[in-house]
């Protein structure tokens, strides 16, 4: 029976939130980049406009002649007034003339903030001598101001170009406001579509959960309807295959229990029947009944042992270690291997002492390695067996002078059913068995890097005793 559903966000909700968060982050990044790039473009455009106005004034000053009268200007005031009369400022821009005494005059749309600002006058006075460009903020409104001194004789006039930066950036702010509204609507729309798609994609998982909740101990007939061609479809097929295996396993278990009950019922019936008819006054009858009952009990014991063995089939006692003489193990494996084929068999070296090992399993592993070596060598080739203690570990190996293991097979050579290029005589299950024996001893199997032939080492932890 399914337990209570824990409170929390569903996978559909988490996916929707993740998509919405990623979309929001992307749109915010785009908006920030848009603002930075456009703001920089506006600033550069303003600076170019200011530089152009100042440059045109300098050109007129360098010429020194009034274009209308072709007479020298005579005074800085006449030069600047002539320039102002011939130039139309750009939008959000004003051209000013600040004489050394008296009120300033300007060309362009009136801006009361600048006209009444002492800070503006102070900035002009600061730059009157050397000129330059500065930023000015008046009541939260940003301006860019360029000052060019015009000196002729004893006259000194400041030519000023002011640009309303805040007004120039107003279209950008309006654009960003529109972008923000559209981005918010886009996030909502994308989240809704993502929620719908997540619901469609996760529908097989909901069916899987409902099917799993409907499975009981006595009913494994529930199956998923397989639809689609994606990973979830593979999951549906896998789940159905799992249910098939479970149903087969439960059916086998029921048959086993039925068979066990039937087999146990027979000897129990025999026991009861003979106990009911035995004549306690007849010694011979009692002796015969006793012998028969003991025989039935032995049969029942064997049946129970077999049933326990079946129950523990997945947990076999694979290795049984005992003190093992290492020279005898090594030479014994070599002597047994000599009968496999006509090869030049040799003994490299033997480890001294004894170790806690399963001699039969390790002999089986060495013979398996020797058999593999036979399959990849021909008559006259050398196959050697050896053992040694190295860095506190016991190493047992089989090497040969054959063609060796191809590089492309090395990563998978110890996998089950992996075979060499000569399929049918390859490494199949043999090396996986060797690996299982080594791992059962807490060790591993290593394929050495050799220039000639192949060399397999079984490395086992432990020390000599």
Automatic annotation (TrEMBL):
InterPro entries given in the database record: HAMP_dom, HATPase_C_sf, HATPase_dom, His_kinase_dom, HisK_dim/P_dom, HisK_dim/P_sf, Sig_transdc_His_kin-like_C, TCS_sensor_his_kinase
Protein name: histidine kinase
Signal peptide region: none
SMART domains the record matches: HAMP, HATPase_c, HisKA
Domain of life: Bacteria
Pfam families: HAMP, HATPase_c, HisKA
Organism annotation: Aeromicrobium terrae
PANTHER family with a match to the protein in the record: SENSOR HISTIDINE KINASE TRCS (PTHR45436:SF5), SENSOR HISTIDINE KINASE YKOH (PTHR45436)
Catalytic activity: ATP + protein L-histidine = ADP + protein N-phospho-L-histidine
Main localisation: membrane
GO MF annotation terms: phosphorelay sensor kinase activity
Keyword annotations from UniProtKB, A to Z: Kinase, Membrane, Phosphoprotein, Transferase, Transmembrane, Transmembrane helix, Two-component regulatory system
GO cellular component: plasma membrane
Histidine kinase domain mapped to chain residues: 259-464
Transmembrane segment boundaries: 15-37, 176-198
Assigned EC number: 2.7.13.3
UniProt keyword annotation of Protein biosynthesis present: no
Keyword field contains Methyltransferase: no
Gene3D superfamilies assigned to the protein according to its UniProt record, in alphabetical order: 1.10.287.130, 6.10.340.10, Histidine kinase-like ATPase, C-terminal domain
Coiled coil: none
Name of the top EC class for this enzyme: transferase
HAMP domain span: 199-251
Compartments (UniProt record): Cell membrane
């Amino acid at each position: 029976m399914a337990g209570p559903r824990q409170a929390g966000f569903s996978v559909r909700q988490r996916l929707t939130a993740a998509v919405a968060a990623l979309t929001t982050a992307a749109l915010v990044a785009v908006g920030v980049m848009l603002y930075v790039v456009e703001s920089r473009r506006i600033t550069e455009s303003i600076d170019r406009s200011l530089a152009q106005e100042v440059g045109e004034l300098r050109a007129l000053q360098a010429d020194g002649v009034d274009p209308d009268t072709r007479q020298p200007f005579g005074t800085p005031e006449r030069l600047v007034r002539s320039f102002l009369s011939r130039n139309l400022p750009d939008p959000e821009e004003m051209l000013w003339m600040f004489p050394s005494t008296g009120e300033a005059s300007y060309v362009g749309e009136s801006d009361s903030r600048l006209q009444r600002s002492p800070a503006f006058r102070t900035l002009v006075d600061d730059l009157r001598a050397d000129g330059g460009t500065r930023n000015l903020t008046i009541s939260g409104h940003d301006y860019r101001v360029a000052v060019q001194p015009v000196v002729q004789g004893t006259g000194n006039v400041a030519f000023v170009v002011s640009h309303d930066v805040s007004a120039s950036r107003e279209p950008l702010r309006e654009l960003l406001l529109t972008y923000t509204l559209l981005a918010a609507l886009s996030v909502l729309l994308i989240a809704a579509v993502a929620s719908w798609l997540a619901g469609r994609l996760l529908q097989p998982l909901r069916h899987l959960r409902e099917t799993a909740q409907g499975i009981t101990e006595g009913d494994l007939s529930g199956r998923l309807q397989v639809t689609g061609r994606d990973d979830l479809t593979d999951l549906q097929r896998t789940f159905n295959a799992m249910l098939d295996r479970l149903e087969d396993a439960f059916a086998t278990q029921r048959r086993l229990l039925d068979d066990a009950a039937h087999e146990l019922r027979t000897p129990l019936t025999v026991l009861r029947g003979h106990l009911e008819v035995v004549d306690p006054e007849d010694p011979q009858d009692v002796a015969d009944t006793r012998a028969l009952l003991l025989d039935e009990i032995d049969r029942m014991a064997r049946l129970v042992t077999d049933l326990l063995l079946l129950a523990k089939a997945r947990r076999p006692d694979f290795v049984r270690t005992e003190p093992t003489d290492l020279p005898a193990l090594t030479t014994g494996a070599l002597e047994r291997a000599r009968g496999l084929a006509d090869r030049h068999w040799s003994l490299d070296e033997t480890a001294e002492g004894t170790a806690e090992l399963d001699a039969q399993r390790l002999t089986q592993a060495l013979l398996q390695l020797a058999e593999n070596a036979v399959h990849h060598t021909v008559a006259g080739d050398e196959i050697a067996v050896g053992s040694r203690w190295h860095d506190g570990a016991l190493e047992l190996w089989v090497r040969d002078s054959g063609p060796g293991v191809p590089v492309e097979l090395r990563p998978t050579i110890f996998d089950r059913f992996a075979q060499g290029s000569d399929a049918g005589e390859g490494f199949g299950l043999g090396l996986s068995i060797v690996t299982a024996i080594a791992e059962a001893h807490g060790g591993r199997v290593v394929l050495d890097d050799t220039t000639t032939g192949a060399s397999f080492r079984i490395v086992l932890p432990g020390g000599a005793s």
